Amino acid sequence: MRAEIIAVGSELLLGQIVNTNARFISTQLAEMGITIHFHTVVGDNKGRLVEAIRIAEGRADLIIFSGGLGPTKDDLTKQTIADHLHAKLVIDQQALSFIEDFFAKRGRPMTDNNRQQALVLEGAQVLKNDNGMAPGMFYRTSTHTYILLPGPPKELEPMFQFEAKSLLAEQVLDNQLIFSHVIRFYGIGEAELETELLDLIENQTNPTIAPLATDSEVTIRLTATGATEDEAWSAIKDVQAEILNRVGKYVYGYNNDSLAQKLKQTLIAHHLTISAAESMTAGLFQAELASIPGMAEALVGGVVVYNEETKIKHLGINKETIDTFTVVSREVAAEMAKKVREKFATDIGVSITGAAGPEGHGGQPAGTVWIGITYKEEVHTYELHLAGMRNTNRIRAVKFAIHYILRIIMNENRSNI
After folding, report:
1. In a 10 Å sphere around its CB, with 0-12 CB exposed, 13-18 middle and 19+ buried, how is residue 268 labelled?
2. Partner of 236 at 20 to 30 A CA spacing, among 160, 201, 285, 324?
3. b/e per residue, 86-119, with b = 16+ CB within 10 A?
4. Cβ contact 143:211 at 8 Å
């Protein structure tokens, strides 16, 4: 099945809102093995919407519309589709009752245009809207399937997930269940990961394998179908085992895990405390950890030592170390990690110093970062050469620091992250 998504709304074309609906729908369709060939955005104009529908019908079997189901004059999606397909619009009594009840409970009069929200294509399967007033529609002809969804994401996402998806599954998956599992990686790029797994990706059947790079991380989503969840998971676990065999050293978690959450779990599980000395990240590492509830069990504290003077005065870094090696160096990172661990009496001390950009710093080009980690009297240092915007480099430095701490702890305890 080939699919096209048509987002309706002049506000999308004007850049007033971001089309997050297309991303959500695409992700959902990909999990079902439905190929998304095109995304189209069209303004609130009947002629241009009809043109977009005709083009979509020539290249897709499934056409999904978002937006244009509301009560105002520019909400013209269903009327345009009805005219194009020569279909009647009829009142859905359940939707109308819901709308009438909504206004009655608030003591407000219901205008005629709100009544129009209960209009649906005759013969369509109505998609209930538990988070708004306009119902959606699932409508099939002999050649195409049309799904009409409201524009607000808080209405569209649950409607698609709990109403439309099951109808599509009947049509595409012969009523089989869909089960997805996400593997999360850090320290490896999307291109390198794909190279390591290329034969698996090229020969994928069930499960499907979808790599995705996002927020300085890489994930792989494995999606399988089966008569039961156990059957789908059985298909996934064999492929996952082969992926872990090849690139398992870069795996830090699964599904909804984050690096910071994983670090919290690992620190608490091993009864470890941590402190940080930050230069270029200026407290970002500690803020990332502190965003996780319960981190106080492990995060003791830290210091921001943004310039040379504060490194010397408040952290006790030897001035000769800075003069000899500069502030962006292995030696200064190592000394910062040792000093902060001593200062806060923690099991682990971590330091981040570098040149965030856009200019170089400490005699080093922009993007050069040194991370120091002290753990059980041992000092580990890591050099990074990042190529990105200033704040992107700072965020990536924090995530690399977390990644390296996890690797050290787990290697020490001879288990897998």
Report:
1. middle
2. 160
3. ebebeebeebbebbeeeeeeeeeebeeebebbbb
4. no
pLDDT tens-digit readout, 171-181: 877 767 778 89
Long-range contacts of 364-368 (CB under 8 A, 24+ apart): 364/326, 364/328, 366/393, 367/393, 368/328
What single string gives the DSSP state of each residue in 293-355?
TTGGGTEEEEEE--SHHHHHHHH---HHHHHHH-SSSHHHHHHHHHHHHHHHT-SEEEEEEE-
Helix 259-269 to helix 390-412 angle (10° resolution) is: 30
The token pair that represents 400 in the structure block = 């690399």
Which residues neighbour 170 within 8 Å (Cβ) at sequence distance 6 or greater?
A: none
In the numeric block, the tokens 């292995």 are attached to 330
Token pair, residue 168, equals: 């599509």
Per residue in 367-383, pLDDT (tens digit) is 999 999 999 889 999 99
- The helices-and-strands tally (H runs, E runs) of the chain is 17, 17
> For the purposes of burial, counting CB atoms within 10 Å of the CB of 230, is it exposed (0-12), middle (13-18) or buried (19 or more)?
exposed
Closest alpha carbon to 197 in 221, 173, 176: 221
Highest mean pLDDT out of 98-107, 197-206, 209-218, 302-311: 302-311
Q: Which residue has the tokens 């209930």?
A: 128
- Determine the average pLDDT of the residues in 71-89: 92
What's the sign of the alpha-carbon dihedral 406, 407, 412, 414? positive
Q: Where are the alpha helices (DSSP H) in 183-223?
A: 190-196, 198-202
What pLDDT was estimated at residue 417?
Answer: 42
Instruction: Supply the pLDDT for residue 175.
Output: 65
